[in-house]
UniProtKB/TrEMBL annotation:
ATP binds at G14, M15, S16, G17, A18, G19, K20, S21. GTP binds at D60, T61, R62, T63. Keywords: ATP-binding, GTP-binding, Nucleotide-binding. This is RNase adapter RapZ. Coiled coil: none annotated. PANTHER family: RNASE ADAPTER PROTEIN RAPZ.
Length: 297
């Protein structure tokens, strides 16, 4: 199997309206040379040209002579020749794409004389092969432009040559499961520090909260089992040439239990040779208040 370095070519593709232009600008900020909507007939020439910077290549259904299968074949051929090339797919829920096109008063490129929803459905079908072969998928349904830029910086800045880029994320189920998580663990079986007045306004990065979470009799056996599972799975992802893996830990509000477990998991995995980027998606949010119930976190 050819050992792949950090990509010197990154194909950025996905659904129209999912944020490709924002992504390419973010890659430019990271030092990439960005090229958008190059005709496929010129792709071999571009890939053969010497480059001093990594290349972020934007390709989507607006590209002249677009052919998803041809792009997948071209990427496979480059990899077989030893080229470090990856595919990033930007996805988004259909209802949100329709809302974005309506809000900006733009026409969907595949639905000039039809509702935007028809174009979204057609495009999803055309892109299915590329999504299936993508090395990384970022779902931007709940992202602002700044959120997408941060996600790209987290995943693609400063990775190690040939190494799996691992992200550990805490989140709150009340605000939705991260759409681009590869593995999700539910920490809501642990005692909730929210119900301890002295801990309520703290978060899982505070030692008192972490100690409370770890003192739960259910914590140690569950944490050891999860750690062992991750240490078993991660090498397999690497052998299969997966470049990016996101592991998410959730609790109700994303401020206490999930944060504490994510921090502990990062330490355990780093000690075993798997350093990770840690993201606490909802730690800074206010405690969740459910209608007709007391607040929970």
């Amino acid at each position: 199997m050819t050992e792949l370095r950090e990509p010197d070519v990154l194909v950025v593709t996905g659904m129209s309206g999912a944020g490709k232009s924002t992504a390419l600008k973010a890659f430019e900020d990271l030092g990439h040379e960005a090229v958008d909507n190059l005709p496929l007939s010129l792709l071999p020439t571009l890939l053969a040209a010497p480059t001093e910077r990594p290349l972020a290549l934007g390709l989507d259904t607006r590209t002249r002579a677009f052919d998803a299968a041809a792009i997948v074949e071209a990427v496979a051929a480059e990899r077989a020749a030893g080229r470090a090339i990856r595919i990033l797919f930007l996805d988004c829920a259909g209802h949100e794409l329709v809302r974005r096109f309506s809000e900006t008063r733009r026409r969907h490129p595949l639905a000039n004389d039809r509702p935007a929803g028809d174009g979204v459905a057609r495009e999803r079908e055309l892109l299915s092969d590329l999504r299936r072969h993508a090395d990384a998928v970022i779902d931007t349904t709940d992202y602002s432009s700044n959120d997408l830029r941060r996600a790209i910086a987290t995943r693609f800045a400063g990775g190690r040559d040939g190494a799996l880029t691992l992200t550990l994320m805490s989140f709150g189920y009340a605000r939705g499961v991260p759409r681009d998580a590869d593995l999700v663990f539910d920490m809501r079986f642990l005692k909730n520090p929210h119900w301890v007045p002295a801990l309520r306004l703290l978060t899982g990065t505070d030692p008192a909260v972490a100690a409370y979470v770890m003192a739960d009799p259910a914590y140690a056996p569950a944490f050891e089992a999860i750690s062992a599972l991750l240490l078993q799975l991660l090498p397999g992802y690497g052998r299969e040439d997966r470049a990016y893996v996101t592991v998410a830990f959730g609790c109700t509000g994303g401020r206490h239990r999930s944060v504490a477990v994510t921090e502990a998991a990062a330490l355990r995995l780093a000690a075993a040779g798997w350093p990770a980027t840690v993201v606490h998606r909802d730690r800074g949010e206010d405690p969740v208040v459910e209608e007709g119930a007391n607040e929970v976190a």
